[in-house]
Design brief:
Chains A, B: GO terms for molecular function: DNA-binding transcription factor activity; transcription cis-regulatory region binding. Chains A, B: This is Transcriptional regulator. The structure is a homodimer of 202-residue chains. Chain A contains 10 helices and no strands. With 202 residues, the first copy, chain A, is mainly α. Chain A folds into 2 domains: 51 residues, Homeodomain-like (Arc Repressor Mutant, subunit A); 126 residues, Tetracycline Repressor, domain 2 (Orthogonal Bundle). The radius of gyration of chain A is 20 Å and the shape is elongated. The termini of chain A are far apart. In chain A, 38% of the residues are buried. The interface between A and B is large, with 45 and 45 residues.
Chain lengths: 202, 202
């Protein structure tokens, strides 16, 4: 809360430029989380976020130039709390634990709906596509890449295979998210065994 | 072309029920193809399809109750012509040929944009999600399933692994479509080797 007098409407807040008010920012993010959880991608609009947060649309666009930026902010805000990165020294075990945590996180937090929204939005605008591919993905696949590289260092797979396996892992997890089958945890183990190239009979 | 007199505006065409006029239907599909190619998912609307095709919105909705139905129709109309199903008796070879044809088809025909639209739309409405998962997917993964089952029959993999491998294949191909990396054909071979569980050094 500030004790400064409220600026006269004529001047508005153009003078503060892109400096963010943390309280207003939290309100915007909370409203965006609620809205994507309640209404999903089809019912998500910056207008409605602004209305619920009591914020100006211009302000929101200054902080989050596109819907994709807002979806990434929703996702990132909660992610690290709920998806621990296992380090057991066994690649299949690590991939299974991690994928299970991630799918549960997607199912039970606004992040899942936000990621579905981000992917959908990326099919509509080049800006969103670039945000997804060039900004979101490298960050969000770093953990899996680290686990796979660890496996390669232990000789469980070849280092040259890591990129392909990251793509297989992301593709599989997105596929289950996008067709609404994250509850189908039973498939995780056998698919992770295939990604890690552990034969069923071995 | 019909030689019947044009019905008076007051009666319109309500009496023909859901019977389709093939010429009008072709015009709608052609307009939908052009529009998704030109404007992508974000610029696609039934209003604009109706305007371009000179058709009524009500008629279009009668034929294609949702945008998802229209995307599936665009996709299906061209698919069989451009994606041959190889039968060489070598699983990796078959998967590589098929995936390469499919990616090229997605890149160079309205079908690719239509599939991106269908997946995006499925993130917004339960009807579109069901159309994608329950109607589109089983049809569109039948070829890959057949190739993998053929490999299993020849002893190249275990029959119990086919479902997981279909999911890995779909996930990987969708992922490349959704991030706009279909031109990246160089990755196909090594990823198909991993899906088929052929080790690089074997």
């Amino acid at each position: 809360m500030t004790t400064k007098p409220i600026p006269a409407p004529a001047k508005k807040r153009t003078s503060i430029g892109s400096r963010r008010n943390p309280e207003a920012e939290a309100a915007v993010l909370a409203a965006a989380k609620d809205l994507i959880s309640e209404k999903g991608y089809a019912g998500f609009s910056v207008d409605e976020v602004a209305r619920r947060a009591g914020a100006g649309k211009t302000t929101i666009y200054r902080w989050y130039p596109t819907k994709a930026d807002l979806f990434i902010a929703i996702y990132t805000a909660e992610r690290s709390t709920f998806v621990p990165v296992p380090d057991t020294g066994n690649l299949v075990e690590e991939l299974v634990q991690y994928t299970t945590s991630l799918w549960r996180f997607w199912e039970s937090h606004p992040a899942g709906a936000a990621l579905r929204g981000l992917i959908a939005e990326a099919q509509g605008t080049p800006e969103a596509l670039s945000a997804l591919r060039d900004r979101f993905l490298p960050d969000r696949t770093a953990d899996v890449r680290r686990m796979l590289s660890g496996g390669a260092a232990r000789g469980e797979l070849q280092a040259a295979e890591v990129d392909d396996k990251v793509a297989l892992w992301v593709g599989f997890s997105w596929f289950k998210l996008l067709v609404g089958e994250l509850h189908d945890e039973g498939v995780i183990k056998s698919v992770m065994m295939q990604i890690a190239e552990v034969r069923r009979d071995s």
